[in-house]
Amino acid sequence: MKNTALTHIHEQLGAKMVPFAGYNMPVQYEGINIEHETVRNGVGVFDVSHMGEFLIEGEKALELIQKVTSNDASKLAIGDAQYSCLPNKTGGIVDDLIVYRVKEFTYLLVVNASNIEKDWSWIAENNTMNAEMKNISEGYSLLAIQGPKAVEAMQTLTSEDLSAIKFYTFKVGDFAGIENVIISATGYTGSGGFEIYCKNSEVEQVWNKVFEAGKSFGIKPIGLAARDTLRLEMGYCLYGNDINDTTSPLEAGLGWITKFTKDFTNSEALKQQKETGVTKKLVAFELTEKGIPRQHYTIVDAEGATIGEVTSGTMSPSLKKGIGLGYVKTAFSKRDTEIFIQVRKKAIPAKIVRLPFYKG
Amino acid sequence: MSIPAELKYTKDHEWVRVEGDIATVGITSFAQSELGDIVYVDVDTVDETVNKDEVFGSVEAVKTVSDLFMPLSGEVIEFNDGLEDEPEKVNSDPYGEGWMIKIAISDNAELDGLLSADDYKALIEA
Lengths: 360, 126
What we know:
The complex is a heterodimer of chains A (360) and B (126).
Chain A: H1 7-12, E1 16-20, E2 23-28, H2 32-41, E3 44-47, E4 52-57, H3 61-68, E5 81-87, E6 93-103, E7 106-111, H4 116-125, E8 132-135, E9 140-146, H5 150-154, E10 170-175, E11 178-184, E12 193-199, H6 200-214, E13 220-221, H7 224-234, H8 267-276, E14 280-287, E15 298-300, E16 306-315, E17 322-329, E18 338-343, E19 346-353
Parallel strand pairs in A: 3-13
Antiparallel strand pairs in A: 1-2, 3-9, 4-7, 4-8, 5-6, 6-7, 9-12, 10-11, 11-12, 14-17, 14-19, 15-16, 15-18, 16-17, 18-19
Helix pairs in contact in A: 2-7
Chain B: E1 8-9, E2 14-19, E3 22-27, H1 29-35, E4 38-43, E5 49-50, E6 55-61, E7 65-69, E8 74-79, H2 82-85, H3 89-92, E9 101-105, H4 117-125
Antiparallel strand pairs in B: 1-2, 2-3, 3-9, 4-6, 5-8, 6-7, 8-9
């Protein structure tokens, strides 16, 4: 089991630690509901240093990225970030990721912790143009400082104007007394804020200064459990739950990051799928009666026939009702369609809704 | 971790208060703390006779769902309606307002199979 550079701090804070993607990670500190609420209305900090980071460099870097990712990375100016995915050759998804253009010929790819080795081999296998690749995952830490008060609470820590960093852009600047930190206006919560990339040797200082600066804003550490409820209220896909090696980006509602303006892995087959239409779709639903959907619960129609499966589900801490994502046959994917979630012996009525669940 | 001496316990982290032929059942402070914020207690066996170790309902935390098992055989005669609107009482007062069901005990001999507070303490500290 690997630790992050901050594991000892989480343990001191009394976090409940769980194994996740090979790392010993804080799942909860004070309680999931209070942590969730802190990010929705204040500011909270996640240690997500388990995430993987690859540098792709040199004149061939863009060519490699364009080949392996579905979104169009040629649109990225220096300082831009882009959500994308790595399609496989059989119609599914190797991983979803964020692509950062750091310099003219330097890109940073941020991938899921559970997929670091798989992604690395996949990209290396496709690197026929010999772009330079470096896996810097082990040496880098990532803090997500999220919530509507993040900008105000963190401004004293940097000479960069935080309010000027637009969503999905970033600056490389000073932060908490450390130089060359990536300050990125990204996150997985839907409540705004930043993700801070720095070296493992620097992260403890950053963490401590973030908590000092945030003290008067009621800043709290936030665990992975609240990270999941926050992302699910926004309908953000979680790899391994909502997308995997067998789900197509088009089925998953990721058509907006699947750009047929260029060629990429499996793009011909995906283009074909777009033209003929998908047979199942990832939908968002909320229960209209009491109950909580969970991953792998069956989705049925009014007659009890199976029409799909739940891929993520929870009680929404913000909305106080059961919400979920799941794949259903395309005929059942329209908004307001009534479906039923098989919760133990009962089929609980639910309706298809538009994302996000949480509208702020 | 609170483990009242006057109650009986099960290895499934439930407590039992026996008063005559009636047993009141809930989950222990240890169990609620492991589950985290409880958001729903679902009991659909009221008025049914359920055997020991069978499922009488489930308790849902934000992230997980756990079955609730009968500590004793008997008829489920009451569900704590207060939990419908305030399931968080299981977290804040697991041995009091967070009680879950009352059972009309059908076999008093089964009482011998329950754990004492000391036995339960040893179980969770093991």
